[in-house]
Here is the input.
Amino acid sequence: MTGEKELAGQVALVAGATRGAGRAMAVELGRAGALVYVTGRTTRERTSEVGRPTETIEQTAELVSAAGGTGIAVPTDHLDTAQVKALTERIDREQGRLDVLVNSLWGGDRLIEFDTRLWDLDLENGLRMFRLGIDSHIITSHYALPLLIRRPGGLVVEITDGTATFNRRYRENLCFDLTKNAPHRIAFGLAAELREHGGTAVSLTPGFLRSEEMLDHFGVTEETWRDAVAQEPHFAIAESPALIARGLRALAADPDKARWSGQSLSSGQLAKEYGFTDTDGSRPDGFGYFEEVVFGGKDGSAADYR
Here is the structure.
């Protein structure tokens, strides 16, 4: 990406910016010159149910500022309507505008029981996924959108797992499947509602994401991630959080972004469209690899899709 501050003067809210894609997107918006409110439940004083105390919203805000933007950390439980209302009132009071809303709220990976039938699932865990991955998005948009629609050009990005096309394939857990398909319909519906206000809404997914949690799972670091390919061959297509972050930046800065409104997008798709790469200079197409090679039986390797 260029060193231009193409988002200078813009205000963003990245809801769920503690780690992973959310943190990377907040930092990249800051690198483009935006003022970014970063929210989440894990702070230096308190750890959320995710249980990763070393990743905090204060750290994210500091990274945003170090990248060239302004990061403001606001501890927020996005299932608490009073907290979300107070958050948006604060943004209104301090900035009087909101240009980009990113709903990157989740934190439910630990709840997933793959290859388990609905009647065998832990029901409380399944319902909690709905709360974490659907309700939180709806609550946040409800309170944030009146501020965003004050000016034309506002952007809402629903972060999910899997494109709408990819998610036609069952995700092997009914509650997870529903939770990760809902953001596509939220973006589709919001696109219709925002149209008269000059706003854009999309859903956006990374490919096989090398999040901090995924790296820990394989016992590797971002520098040594290729060592995990021996354990999981498909990890060869993995992408860093920077790829989706660069996609968000390009989308937010695109004066013609309304052409995407209502659509399901992926980091790999936006990399091709806008011409950026991952940190290693490659352009991984995770969904192309999985759909054509892994599930489609086409001869090829991850290297053919990077």
